[in-house]
Amino acid sequence: LRRYTPDGTKVVKVIGDNYEIIAGSSNVLITGDVNLTIEGTKRELIKGDCIQEIEGSHIQRIHKNQQIKVGTGKSGGNREEEIRGNYSYNIKNNVKGYVGEDFDTLIEKNESRTINGYFDGSIVSNYTVTSLADVKMSAKTNMALTTVSGIVSVKSGSTLNMKSASAMTLKTESTLTTTVASSWTGTVGTTWTHTSTGIT
């Protein structure tokens, strides 16, 4: 059923299925709004490229799930994003991801991160931290530095300070060697006890 009204409105009503075949190109110009309601499923197959240019905002409201697959063909594919403003996200539940190769991030300014729970990291190879300024580490209770094997090295470019608010214990299972290039000064507030099984 096709009907035209005196004001130029066109109404098309299809009782059954509708098929439209265009052997050439199709060009549509709509100077007003477009409202499309689909009560069933919508499928689109585009064998070429799909290009959208939106001069205003793009708003999507998805009531259930969203799934995006890039590179489903044999040759694979890439995804690139360029945002020339801010990027914000709010995720109510978990975030899980997998990166098959390298993960590189360049931050021109600052990074601030707050974790209300725990942080657990596992690294198979080396771990390197380099700062052109200060590095500060603070723990509310205990802090432990342990290696299964190998050497723990602490080196200062100028002065090395070690201080304990309470007792300090230095223990080695083997020999202890101390080398002082210049003078050595020791100050004991109360009692100094030294025990040796032998002196050489």
Q: How is this structure best described in words?
A:
This protein is mostly loops. The protein is 0% helix and 3% strand. The chain is built from no helices and 2 strands. It has strands spanning 2-4, 10-12. A two-stranded antiparallel ribbon has the order 1-2. A hairpin with a 5-residue loop joins strand 1 and strand 2. The chain starts with a strand and ends in a 188-residue tail after the last strand.
Q: Could you give the order of strands across the largest sheet? A: 1-2
Order of helices and strands: EE
| Number of continuous helical runs | 0
Q: Helicity range of the residues?
A: under 10%
Q: Main β-sheet, in a few words?
A: 2 strands, antiparallel
Give the CA-CA distance, first to last residue: 114 Å
- Mean pLDDT value: 92
Unreliable spans: none
Proportion of residues in β-strands: under 5%
Shape descriptor reads rod-shaped
Question: What is the β-strand count?
Answer: 2
Q: Measured on Cα atoms, how large is the radius of gyration?
A: 35 Å
